[in-house]
Description:
It contains 22 helices and 24 strands. The chain is α/β, with parallel strands linked by helices. It has two domains: 11-284, Nucleotidyltransferase, domain 5; 292-464 and 498-530, Nucleotidyltransferase, domain 5 (2-Layer Sandwich), CATH 3.30.420.40. The strands form six sheets. Strands 1, 2, 3, 6, 12, 13 and 14 form a seven-stranded mixed beta sheet that branches. Strands 17-18-16-15-22-23-24 form a seven-stranded mixed beta sheet, sandwiched between helices. Strand 2 (21-27) and strand 3 form a beta hairpin. The radius of gyration is 24 Å and the shape is globular. It binds adenosine-5'-diphosphate (ADP) and D-xylulose. Adenosine-5'-diphosphate is lined by residues 302-303, 342, 345-346, 357, 442-444, 446-447, 450. Residues 12-289 form the Carbohydrate kinase FGGY N-terminal domain. It catalyses: D-xylulose + ATP = D-xylulose 5-phosphate + ADP + H(+).
Amino acid sequence: MAQANKNQDRLFLGFDFSTQQIKVIAVTDAFEVVYDGHVQFDVDLPEFKTNGGVHIHPDHVTITTPTKMWVKAFDLLLSRMKASDFPFHKVVAVSGAGQQHGSVYWKKGARIQLANLSPDQNMFDQLKDSFSVDDSPVWMDSSTADQCLKLEKAVGGPQVLASITGSRSYVRFTGNQIMKISETKREAYDNTERISLVSSFAASLFIGDYAPIDHSDATGMNLLDIWTREWAPKCLEVCGPNLAEKLGPSVHSTKPVGKVSSYFVKKYGFNPECVVVAFVGDNPASLAGLAPEQGDVVVSLGTSDTVFLWLTKPTPGLSGHIFANPINQDDFMSLTCFKNGSLTRERIRDENSEGSWDKFSEMLKKTPPGNNGALGIYFDQMEIQPFAEGVYRFDGEGNKVDSFPPEVEVRAVIEGQFIARKVHAENVGFQLGPNTRVIATGGASNNQEILQVLADVFNSPVYVKEVPNSAALGCAMRAKHTLDGGKFSDIAQKAHPSVLVASPGPYSQVYSQLSVRYREFEKMIETQSQ
Ligand code: ADP
Ligand code: XUL
């Protein structure tokens, strides 16, 4: 009984250091949200003159964030919590997420400054000169095409790099960003004693020491071997001198990385026993927040569509990314992003259903699953996989046609998109299992008829979760899991039960045939686009 009462007073914090803001939520053991706050960089810290949290350089491809702005924002967030009498002493564990791929360069000597922060001053004043590179490259940067080629060439080609690190080389991936710094800012590189990701940087602020990079975020660097979870020597060698030393160790995402430093205890009243659990990438954190069971598939239907998979046997290839799973040490997750999502669906709605989702849904119900063999591929913008653009329609006989009747067009866009989501999921290792669940989220998950197509195409039940701040919540859940142990899925069930919204009809045969045809059409379009 005493224990139960004591537990009722416990709080967990989940942070999200994202592109435009830092968010925090505080939850109880029962996942009641008792505090929800944020600092928005453009609005709250106008002195840094960011736009959407970043600076776009004149070349348009270099995109950075002033590192010390994050420190100041963190100070501000905590001081706002203090001003609202937030009970810091009740917090037993914290964890957090960071935008993936971004990097922070700590200057030689910074570790000592970090370990000796005085509670009489703020962190910004004490750490503002602790970085050897003032502007952190972030995930939006695309200035490293040359470095990407170099890395792939050095290891034996894009597929070899993907087979080692889970992804071919990508301009935003940190190894390539580090290589660019080592080539263009050599003095600053040599004057760097530790390179953190945004996630491990935030954890470092909390523990007053360099926090290790967690495996899930480390797999977004083109530097970690996804199978052994060790830094890949060949990649390190190409990306910068003495890089292993500058990166320090990596650690599984479930591990505690220390306790809050005395700065937080003295300045804010944290309990000195408060545990800091490894901070992770924002996408892995969202997986924890949304899809906490082995085999789960998340389909996020927003401006662009994103598919996350919890995988046990990944097959890394030339599209999508394989990351280490943030919950289960032996498992993986994939992340595949599709540019043509809601905006394409909206265009088809406007042209065929008078701009009304209700009419669009009615039309969807009028056509049979499989659309009598009609198949459409709608890449209004250059798609990511395949790298192709344009609209392609095929009738039931496989002939290319210029248009479809409105009802057929409406079904074709939804089926074409969802078949693509499934085909690319299979490419990175997705296999339908008896317990596969599809978790739908994002704007279009409000649409029951669209979700029915999703269930039919994936031949799996679809659940909906609208979890605001899924990355921050995922981190609060992870913090509790590391502290208390037990099954992660039990924690998740408590945090937000899933709601079943659509069950698959008897169409697995129809969609497996269409998937085979889709693969052929996609290959043809990709070849034509080259
Ligand atoms: P973001 O990715 O920017 O966070 P959201 O997840 O909020 O976006 O999704 C926004 C999109 O949701 C809109 O562009 C809109 O097309 C789509 N949407 C909203 N309601 C519906 C609906 N009932 N049916 C289909 N799509 C919808
Ligand atoms: C993932 C990616 C973005 C960032 C920012 O690979 O680049 O989703 O994590 O949120």
